[in-house]
Every structure is written in structure tokens, then in C-alpha cells.
Design a protein that fits this description.
The chain is an alpha/beta fold. The protein has 2 domains: about 5-140, 3-Layer(aba) Sandwich (Cytidine Deaminase, domain 2), CATH 3.40.140.10; about 150-340, Dihydrofolate Reductase, subunit A. The protein has 10 helices and 13 strands. The strands form 2 sheets. It has an 8-stranded mixed beta sheet, sandwiched between helices. Helix 1 (about 5-15) runs parallel beside helix 5 and helix 3 (about 90-95) packs parallel to helix 4 (about 115-120). The two termini are about 35 Å apart. This is Riboflavin biosynthesis protein RibD. Pathway: Cofactor biosynthesis; riboflavin biosynthesis; 5-amino-6-(D-ribitylamino)uracil from GTP: step 3/4; Cofactor biosynthesis; riboflavin biosynthesis; 5-amino-6-(D-ribitylamino)uracil from GTP: step 2/4. It catalyses: 2,5-diamino-6-hydroxy-4-(5-phosphoribosylamino)-pyrimidine + H2O + H(+) = 5-amino-6-(5-phospho-D-ribosylamino)uracil + NH4(+); 5-amino-6-(5-phospho-D-ribitylamino)uracil + NADP(+) = 5-amino-6-(5-phospho-D-ribosylamino)uracil + NADPH + H(+).
Length: about 350
């Protein structure tokens, strides 16, 4: 059971770990808050990306008083290995910290073991944290954790559909299928990913800016890398001030595209391509999450939401599990995952 001050400090550690200036990969985002014996904040710190001090080291370096007997609240288990920096578990021990609260164990087999190191030295380590904070710690680095398990980025495919499954009318017009609330949510979604990927066809026809914007049009602090996948003549995307960089991937192979992005440290891809690109990733089994904004309208004709999946009979259908249904203004947002068994 955490004290009130500890719960508040762990919540703060999660907030600073999610600093939009910090890359989503290839390192995890981590926050740390140090409390004295009376529950007052001594210092706080967070990891700012590969090659920078870890959150615990950052917090310790900012403390203006002794941290002997202090409590460290960390969003991810202190590391126990020598990388670019020494083990954070050892640094906490040397500083005299008496208690460590950990929101999430480290799934990286190279770095885990900090809890055991601390406990072996007599430090009080608490892993039982409020469920909402544990869940937030998991969401904070889900792309990074996915990369550890699968050696490729997490892929979220997003589409907006009419009730009869169309993404556009027969003449190609598609603005706007969904309402303002659903469209605003898409911008928030872009801000949680480090890549937005479209196909060459979408780039030619729609010329999207692929920026993450507020309703008033101003850009959000975090802007994803804008990626166009395909070959042939691809016009440059609009580049408003503050937009993310643009990368052309000269391939039609989803696996090759993800491998290149992973090698560049990218860990979460938002797939906003048209039916062809979405179908290609689904055929390859490379969509981890599907978000559908479903509008209460009918077109009767026009391109479908997903291109040819190579399915010829009902027994070959691609089943998904419905994770969540949530209203978004006049629309519905469906969150689905591919069924693995």
C-alpha cells in the first residue's frame, strides 16, 4: 500500500516520463521522483533518449540535499546492467535510498534484475502500485516493449468507414466521412506514435500533411516521422512549419518497411494508408491493432476500407477481437486486435 505522497509522486513520475520531447524509441521513457522521509519532493528526473542519463541518475544529480533514507518512485524497474551508463540499482544503493517503488518490471532480459539487487542489499522495494498507474506505465512504452518481443515496431492501422464499409465515394471524394470529434482524436493518436505511414497512392491523391494538430490548427509538441511507402513518382508532402521529417521507403514489402524503420529506432507506426497499403499489412500479418472510426452514413459504392486480402472462402476469413467500443460525437470508435488463435 502506497502512502498518499507516494501515489502522487508516482503519478508525477509518469507525467514527466511522457515528455513529448522524448523519443518513443529505441529506449524506454522513464520517470523518477525522490521523496524525503516526510513525503516532500527532493528531486525529479526523466530519461531523454539514447545516450542520456537514466531517470534515476537524472533525479539523483538534481538533488540539492542528501537522499539518504529517501524513497525513489520509478515508472520502470531500475536497470541492473552496464550499458552506456552504470546500473541504476547500484546508483540508488550508493546514494543511500531506503525505499524504491516500481510501477513496472523491466521486460528487457539484458536490463532486468534491479529489484533483486535492491532487495538483496536490504532496500524496501514495493511493486504493488495502484492499477491505473501500473496500466499507465505499461502504455507509456508499449511500442518499445513490442519491439523487444518482436524485433519490429508496433503497428496501429487507422481507418474511417461508412456503415457499408466505404472509405470514399465512387468519385473518390472522402472529406469528411467522420465528424470533428473523431478527426480530432486522430491527431491525438498521431502524437502518441513516432511514425505515420501512407502509401504512394494516398500521397499522390490526397497530399496529406500528416501532422498532429489541435482543433485550432496549431501543431502539437510531438510530431511523428512522415513516411511514404511505394515506388514511382511520389510528390513531396506539404511541409508546414513544425511538421515532422519525411522519409520515402522505396518498397511495397511491409516487412522490409518495418525493418528499416526499426533500424532507425522507430517503435510505433500509425498506418494511415488507403485500402491497398492496409490490405498489404493485414495480408502479411503485421497489423497489431486496428482502430476504426465508424460513421452512421451510407454510400452504397466506392472503395472498400481494406484491399484484397487473398481470401476466397468464408473459412479463410480474418477474425479480430473487439477490445473497445467508444462513442466519438456522432461516430463510433472500434478498437480491435487480430485474433492470434
Amino acid at each position: 500500500m502506497l502512502a498518499h505522497a507516494e501515489t502522487a509522486a508516482l503519478r508525477r513520475a509518469l507525467e514527466i516520463a511522457a515528455d513529448p520531447a522524448v523519443p518513443l524509441g529505441p529506449n524506454p521513457r522513464v520517470g523518477c521522483v525522490l521523496l524525503d522521509a516526510h513525503g516532500a519532493v527532493i528531486a525529479e528526473g526523466h530519461h531523454r533518449g539514447a545516450g542520456t542519463p537514466h531517470a534515476e541518475i537524472d533525479a539523483l544529480s538534481r538533488a540539492s540535499v542528501s537522499v539518504a533514507g529517501a524513497t525513489a518512485l520509478v515508472t520502470l524497474e531500475p536497470c541492473a546492467h552496464h550499458g552506456r551508463t552504470g546500473p541504476c540499482a547500484d546508483a540508488l544503493l550508493e546514494a543511500g535510498v531506503a525505499r524504491v517503488v516500481v510501477a513496472r518490471r523491466d521486460p528487457n532480459p539484458l536490463a532486468t534484475g534491479g529489484v533483486e539487487t535492491l532487495r538483496a542489499a536490504g532496500i524496501d522495494v514495493e511493486l504493488d502500485v495502484p492499477e491505473d498507474l501500473a496500466a499507465a506505465a505499461g502504455l507509456l512504452n508499449r511500442g518499445w516493449e513490442h519491439g523487444l518481443q518482436h524485433d519490429r515496431p508496433l503497428v496501429t492501422a487507422k481507418t474511417a468507414l461508412t456503415l457499408d464499409g466505404r472509405v470514399a465515394a465512387a468519385d473518390g471524394s472522402s472529406r469528411w466521412i467522420t465528424g470533428e470529434e473523431a478527426r480530432s482524436e486522430v491527431h491525438d493518436l498521431r502524437a502518441t506514435c513516432d511514425v505515420v505511414l501512407i502509401g504512394a497512392g494516398t500521397a499522390r491523391i490526397d497530399q496529406p500533411s500528416l501532422t498532429a494538430r489541435r482543433p485550432d490548427g496549431t501543431l502539437l509538441p510531438h510530431q511523428p516521422l512522415r513516411v511514404v511507402m511505394g515506388t514511382g513518382d511520389i510528390p513531396p508532402l506539404p511541409a508546414p512549419a513544425g511538421a515532422g521529417d519525411t522519409l520515402l521507403l522505396r518498397t511495397h514489402d511491409p516487412s522490409a518497411a518495418l525493418a528499416e524503420l526499426f533500424a532507425h529506432g522507430r517503435r510505433h507506426v500509425l498506418l494511415e494508408g488507403g485500402p491497398t497499403v492496409t490490405g498489404a499489412f493485414l495480408r502479411a500479418g503485421l497489423v497489431d491493432e486496428l482502430i476504426v472510426h465508424l460513421a452512421p452514413t451510407l454510400l452504397g459504392a466506392g472503395p472498400p476500407g481494406v484491399g484484397d486480402l487473398g481470401i476466397t472462402t468464408i473459412s479463410e476469413r480474418l477474425d479480430l477481437d473487439l477490445v473497445e467500443v467508444a462513442p466519438r460525437g456522432c461516430d463510433l470508435r472500434l478498437t480491435l486486435r487480430l485474433r492470434t488463435a
